[in-house]
Amino acid sequence: MNDFFNTNFFYCNGENSVKIGLNDFDSDKHYHLIMTDDEDDMYYAIVVEPGFWYNFNVNVYKWNFKLLEFDGDEISILVEDKIDIEKFNISLISDDEEEIKIWKYYLWLVQVKLGYKFDIIVNQEFLDNEFEEGDYVEISRECYNNYIKKTTTPLRNDYSSLTIITTIFSVLNNEEKDEILNHDWLTK
Amino acid sequence: MKIVGSFLGIHDNGFSLIEDNNILACYSDERFSREKSCFRQYTFPQYSLDALQNDFNINILDKDIILASAKPIRIEQPEVVDIIMQRTIKLYSHQYSHACGAYYTSGFDEDTLIISYDGGDCGDDNFTEINKDNIDKYHPYKTNTYSGIYVVKDGKLIEVGKRQKHGSVAHLWPVFCQIFGLQHLKDEGKIMGLAAQGKYNNKIFKQLKYLANNDYYGSGWIMLYYYRDLLETLTEEEHWDLKRDLAYNLQLITELEIIKFIDIANLKYGKFKNLCVAGGVFANVKLNQKLNEELSFDNIWVYPAMSDEGLSLGSAIACGVEMGVFKNRRIENTFFGKNYTTVEINRYIEDFECDKKIVFQDLDYNKISEYLVDGKVIGIFDGASEYGPRALGNRSIIVEPTKKETHEYINMRLKRDEIMPFAPIILEEYIDDVCYYDKSKYSSEFMTMCYTVKDEWINKIPAVINTYDNTARPQVVNKDRHKIFHNILSHFNEITGVPVLMNTSFNGHGEPIINSPQDALKHLFENTIDYLIINNKIYNF
Fold it and tell me: What is the DSSP string of B399-425?
């Protein structure tokens, strides 16, 4: 299991960009992300704030991540890892069955519509893709509304799943997110 | 051979013109736009291009002019694309352009180490020129280099090392500007000035040292919210104590890291007699003082246009050296900016519309000295404006330096909020009496370095001394190279026995240094200054 997930450090990525957000945020601490390429050369560094995702346009596929943490006294490395963005990894941490259901279905839908493959990770576990093209999953309007309602304010983590989903759409950038979110199935 | 150099990057954009071995003009766009470069970012330097083409009767699209530019070149700007589609622009790396500006204006022999160091560049290393055939392949933001190390062989600069990893110590300064509520690329000097009032703080220093040791300079932003929020919770006294300590420790880590960097380069690539430096961090005159005092070089030359403003000339020089027409020489001054003829100046004066009657008298240095003794504020507008951040006599304001309260008075008159003490001009004949001064003397004519003031002068010229560390940032005035300054200082010295005056740049709060006679007259009209020396006359209302 990737250390990022153990520390609730979310990321998802696409062919030409990487988006980073911090899931489990300690409001008394400050975070800073460093990204370098495989030769430790190309470089991004950015303050990670709650409620934001960070988009990095890249033209290489293997990245080194370092997440620094600052508690006002010392600066230290919280996470250090590498990712290979030729493969998509999308993670959710939640104990809400409804949210997980929507999450999985969204990802499946994106996979089908856009032709990308994801590793779907929920609560730090890789899940088998339980859907196949042509499958139909019913999500009620009430269920969706509850989901949206919850996500208008941050969930117990600082990142709503909706943010993550819309992030996926903008990362993949092949579909208008509104078009997908307003797809017929949502109204069923 | 005419070469037009340019910097078409993010800030401090402009154009320069050299012809064979002569520097003809260096125009920074902020002087024309009247907006400091920090507020005028990502803009094409159209004002300076228009002025250059008009003043020298050239058109950069003419094929007999060679175009050069320092990277990065912002090819997303339509004006840049328009040029590229019609002409080829020779490209030189950001750090190499800084280094060429530094070395080829120093007059130093080949026993010289050249260091450029700043907040970084970008630009595609594979491109030595850009034109309509390859513009689509150019990647303006590929690679970042924060420093270049160069030596000289057969008159050419050879890159022997560079810093290309995780940022530079320069990246800590914009963080601290934000913590302090100041403007990056404009107010760093205020933090440097405040540093003299602070003290070592182990916690702050360890945090900065951690970033430095691990090469995480760019991650200095992790400190922003903590310290900004903390400052808001403190009492006024605690607030300023913390700011002073933050400034002190930032200045300390900057000095330590740059000294270490240069020292290692010097040991690694051969022990050199001379050092040339350029890049934004060397706008820090306290750092330059430490380089001068701590390192083993006999002479240090700080490129007077050390920031990105100096890149347009640097790229023109790089091109001139490549073409074999530009040779190393010591520049006499930095008066490469916009010049005005007597006829033009008179027209500005005649056309200046105001409701007061302007009067004038011939320039009389005894009169000027009397005005200065009387506490008057005098503006000088003479010849071409200075290239680089320092006003060195052609767009300067001078005041007598013997009263401590003058600092506050000048801040009030100029509507400024300077923390850093104003700088002195000192007659060359007396500099050894006033300051501990034994190395890098030529740099001191360009106000790029601090020196420690001797005890007996500290109370005589308090308006121009940082009394927390007894240093000053003098411009040493040579009688052949700065005639007006030398004459004024000599007469003032005859009356007062003080061969020193205060010199600050001729501009109001938040403005770049003035450019035109109209700018100067406006300050006279608005009572920023009491008298204006222009065209060998003294004007006042």
Answer: E----TTHHHHHHHHTT----SPPEEE
User: How far apart are the CA of A181 and the nearest CA of chain B, in angstroms?
Assistant: 34
- What's at B275, amino acid-wise? L
Each residue's pLDDT tens digit in chain B (541 positions)?
999 999 998 899 999 999 999 999 999 999 999 988 877 778 899 999 999 999 999 999 999 999 999 999 988 888 999 999 999 999 999 999 999 999 999 999 999 999 999 988 777 777 899 999 998 888 766 667 889 999 999 999 999 998 877 678 999 999 999 999 998 888 999 999 999 999 999 999 999 999 988 878 888 889 998 999 999 999 999 999 999 999 999 999 999 999 999 999 999 998 999 999 999 999 999 999 999 999 999 999 999 999 999 999 999 999 999 999 999 999 999 999 999 999 999 999 999 888 888 899 999 999 999 999 999 999 999 999 999 999 999 999 999 999 989 988 998 998 887 777 799 999 999 999 999 988 888 899 999 999 999 999 999 999 999 988 999 999 999 999 999 999 999 999 999 999 999 999 999 888 899 999 999 999 999 999 999 999 899 999 8
Nearest-5° Cα angle at B390, B386 to B360: 60
B98, B118 in Cβ contact below 8 A? yes
Backbone phi, psi, residue B182, to 5°:
-110, 175
Q: How far apart are CA A188 and CA B9, in angstroms?
A: 53
The answer to ipTM > 0.90 is no
In chain A, where the domains are located? 3-84, 88-187
pTM over 0.90, yes/no = no
Q: What fold does the segment set A3-84 form as a domain?
A: Immunoglobulin-like (2.60.40)
What are the beta bridge partners of residue A103?
A: none
Helix (H, G, I), strand (E, B) or coil at B53: helix
Locate A134 and state its tokens: 């042509």
Distance from CA of B262 to the nearest CA of A (A): 22
Residue B468 lies in a domain: yes
Question: Could you tell me the residue range of the domain that residue B473 belongs to?
Answer: 342-540
A34 near B CB under 8 A: yes
- With an 8 Å Cβ cutoff, is A132 touching chain B? no
Q: Compute the nearest-CA separation of A156 from chain B (Å).
A: 23
What is the b/e burial string over B256-275, where b = at least 16 CB atoms within 10 angstroms of the residue's CB? bbbbebbeebbeeeeebebb
Residue B228 lies in a domain: no
Residue B352 lies in a domain: yes
Is B219–A34 a contact, with Cβ atoms under 8 angstroms apart?
yes
Both tokens of B440, joined, read: 């890098």
Q: What is the rounded (10 degree) CA torsion for B334, B335, B337, B338?
A: 170
Classified as helix, coil or strand, A128 is coil
Instruction: State the number of CA atoms in the 13 A half-sphere of B4 facing the CB.
Output: 26
Contacts of B221 in chain A (CB under 8 A): 32, 45-47
- Specify the CATH number for the domain of residue B367: 3.90.870.20
- Give how many domains chain B has, as a whole number: 1
Using a CB-CB distance cutoff of 8 angstroms, which residues of chain A are in contact with residue B207? 70, 74-75
Q: Do B143 and A72 touch (CB under 8 A)?
A: no
E strand intervals along B263-347: 274-278, 299-302
In a domain, B495, yes or no: yes
User: A45 vs B167: CB contact, 8 Å cut-off?
Assistant: yes
